[in-house]
Amino acid sequence: MDIPKKQHDDPSGETKIWNHMYVYTDTLALRCATELKIADAIHRHGEPITLHELAASNLPLSADHLHRLMRYLVQIKIFTMHESLDEEPKYGLTPASELLLNHHERCMSPAILMVTDPDFLSPWYHLIDGLDGKSMAFEKAMGKGIWEYLSEKPEKSRMFNEAMAADTRLLTSALIRDCEGMFGGIGSLVDVGGGTGTALRAIARAFPHARCTVYDLPHVIAESPAYPEIERAHGNMFESIPPADAVLMKCILHDWDDKECIEILKKCKEAVPRDGKVIIVDVVLEMESKHPFNKVRMNMDLDMMINTGGKERTEEEWKELIYAAGFAGYSIKNISALQSVIETYPY
After folding, report:
1. Among residues 197, 247, 295, 341, which one has the fewest Cβ atoms lying within 10 Å of its Cβ?
2. Are 137 and 307 in contact (CB under 8 A)?
3. pTM of whole model > 0.70?
4. Catalytic-role residue among 67, 209, 234, 254
5. pLDDT of residue 147
6. φ, ψ for residue 42 (rounded to 5)?
């Protein structure tokens, strides 16, 4: 079939392909800025910084090469550039680059370094291998599943945990800020798969009336800090969950397939009283949404498919899981985070 001449003359398709083909430039330029701690250097300077001052604050760098990197980072709005007729251009921070500051409460640097690490990028080159539904791209790339891989690579496990902790801080901040009413009437709360308890500790401090327990596998709890605000319990969520007024699961179910999610949800239901609830904090996909996080949520779905065999779910898919596990109803609340809050009611 001949392509209409109008389509030959329209550069938008070609532009789109070129932009997608080079999108990794954004990703790896951001990683480079993170590794060089450029945001920290500007912050220490106390005001926008010249190229030469910036070069002097790092390892010996080519002024020309650093200029070209910074020019690109300004173009993608990670940093600002201030120009005047009689002074050298100066580079400043933006709301995005402030999230690269290592002292920032919501610092995203650990997540950037993990997501862009060569080992964690490698499975994406095996995306096609994982489309058969029988194996995961991560296994094809690394020769083993992600959890086994992390258990054998302490430095990668540390990187992964630091990235998850950074993501948890972002999420917990939104959860506490946007869901005060949800936690207000809870007398006891169990955080299933709560890791080292960082998130639950923040929740316990914000809602001191609630008795909070972090619940995870024995080796995780053994290595977790003994925070005075929270209790610790170990076990397997597929076998049992400690009783509480409410059960919290943050970014847990997206790691598992539907059958396993139903098993976990049934155990959660057994753990709460008739007037209790299970609080799921996870992505809710909306195909036609204009939400600024929507594309990232779609990215996360492919990420789960590639790395864990799990998935992000639409509301309809969540509904099917919740009712299949025997729950009577649910409600969804959007918060200022990638994830949403799904309150499920057992009876």
Report:
1. 295
2. yes
3. yes
4. 254
5. 86
6. -65, -40
